[in-house]
Amino acid sequence: MMNLRMIATKGTLFAGALLLSSTALSGLVDAKSLTVGLTSDAVNLDPQAGEELSSNILFYHIYDPLVRRNADLSFGPGLAESWELTDDTTWVFKLRKGVKFHNGQEFKASDVVFTLDRLKKSLMANLGANISSFNAIDEYTVEIKTPRPYAVLPNDLAAVLILNEKYVKEAGDETADLKPIGTGPYKLVEWVKEDHIALESNKDYYAGPAKLDSVTFRPITNGATRTAALLTGEVDVIQDLNVRDVDRVKADDRYKVLSQPSLLNVVLSIDQREKSPTIDLDKNPMVDHRVREAMVRAIDVGAINKIIMNGLSTHSEQYVPASHTGYLDGASFRDMYPFDVEKATVLMAEAGYADGFTVTLDATNNRYVNDQQIVQALASMLGKIKINLKLNLMPKSNFFGYIRVPSDKSSLIMSGWDVPSGDGGSMYSVMFYTRDKKEGYGQVNRGSYSNPEVDALIDKADATAKLDERDKYLQDVTKILMADIPMIPIHYEQDLYAAKTNVDITPRADKFLWAYDIDVKE
Questions:
Q1: Is residue 176 within 8 Å of residue 162, measured between CB atoms?
Q2: If we measure between CA atoms, which residue out of 324, 15, 319, 320 comes closest to residue 152?
Q3: pLDDT, tens only, 28-80
Q4: For residues 275, 280, 283 and 289, what is the CA-based torsion angle, rounded to 10 degrees?
Q5: CATH class for domain 262-493?
Q6: Domain boundary assignment for the chain
Q7: Dihedral of the alpha carbons of 459, 461, 466, 471, in degrees to the nearest 10
Q8: What is the pTM of this model?
């Protein structure tokens, strides 16, 4: 099990400092730049307006959290230099002094209070679901209370980026999204949507200026085009190298291929409502457990890995990986429901759907590795048990708004979910908790799944300050979810990058490309 460093123990103080390289401290003689090819453009630069990978990558260049999530998923000081659990539900965070926003204003506790207050009213309110109150004790001390003992609050705060109160209030939400101001290692120079985002180094960054003076992110949605852009020298690094281009890039000594096991679980969310919007039947067939089991058994994840992913994916045993709290040792979807079209056909007949039904599958065509080919394979596989998939494919820029909960348009959705906090509860509370039952919970419950026992276990997990107890409650949730099948996990991607050989880059476990950790050698 991953060693989550934020174990809450009464009276324990967590402190430390960001270690700086001598290069970062001494400055650079010659300007260094980097151009990165991303799979898509950012949707927002306001970190409370929504989240998806490209936006998240940019967020952490421009803003900082109180608690820093490191490349290996350990946690350490960010804008908070230390924190202490003073009683079962009260955390006190000591803030760094002398930190400046990009507009020159000093970072203070009032900015944290403003950020958390705005967060509670935003689309990302789930990030603050386990915060009951907060206040500034003085200019550099913030007190945050949880409604009950909660072991992983500091981990959660790694996803909360701190805004400048004065700027956001004066500029307004729209301007703050287009022209963001943070404390991060880079400042926004220009955002030409669907073309590029240009950043320059924040020379006053509290941890020392970045090694790279400027970074440009270019959205290149087509995998072959991204590879071509690298090989022709237009970009220095590309994200999500096309699996079919791996050998080609490896064969050219000007470039290198890097890989990292992904945390991103590609999943199918199944509508659990009695009447489903894209199924022309009086009752939604997918409410029947036998139909959901038939769907799992009809999907050949091995064939998807071999034929579509070129062997560069790992089938999902559960909803979270083995490193996370909530993972159940020895349990696997593929053992519980092995690929068996004949058995799946029998289950469909037993449920009364021997003649099948038609349902629309919503999916992206530029967000996940080979996502379009995957949904086409799913259509073929489910077609063998007479489930006719109508494919509704769209770019990522349209997709997340289209499927936003609550949706009266979607019955079956292919998306992805990762849990960089290392805590399965952060996924379970938003994806499987009954919707509209508890503020900040169930906000991404795309299938309208509801199980009172699951809700109660999540409540218990969120009410303990002991990490081992939390893990046990979440494992119990996992058992129920694997039996109920509210969602079908497909596979974890293998994060693939390609870069020029002079680019010093190590892939992060959370798939965030953070230019502050990257250098270009002469």
A1: no
A2: 324
A3: 346 899 999 999 999 999 999 988 889 999 999 999 999 999 998 889 999 99
A4: -90
A5: alpha beta
A6: 13-213+501-520, 262-493
A7: 170
A8: 0.73
